[in-house]
Write a structure and sequence with these properties.
single chain
């Protein structure tokens, strides 16, 4: 049974940093592109970043480009989102996903982790 478990969310001041991690199990992690989505209160879920299965390609939406970095470790079946220069508008529940394509079409989802950026 496929499982994605996020960790690392929390409360941070504007300008600060957080690192989100996602641990995968129950499927062939290295065969999937991985990505992160977020959903702010009252808004639809938004795709924000993805990384190809061998890490040769990454993709970011414009609003996080230059501030967020996605990476993966296929040996450990983990994907990480390093978030820098956080803004209040980054406040959302962040979801890890496994799938394919850009933007990522998710086959598997994590349960989400809350990120709150105070001004």
């Amino acid at each position: 049974q496929a499982q994605l478990v996020e960790s690392g969310g929390g409360l941070v001041q504007a300008g600060g940093s957080l690192t989100l991690s996602c641990a995968a199990s129950g499927f062939s992690f290295s065969s999937y592109a991985m990505g992160w989505f977020r959903q702010a209160p009252g808004k639809e879920r938004e795709f924000i970043a993805a990384i190809s299965w061998r890490s040769e390609s990454t993709y970011y939406i414009d609003s996080v480009k230059g501030r967020f970095v996605i990476s993966r470790d296929n040996a450990k079946s983990t994907v990480t989102l390093q978030m820098n220069s956080l803004k209040p508008e980054d406040t959302a529940v962040y979801y890890c996903a496994a799938g394919g394509g850009i933007p990522l079409e998710a086959a598997y989802w994590g349960q989400g982790t809350q990120v709150t950026v105070s001004s």
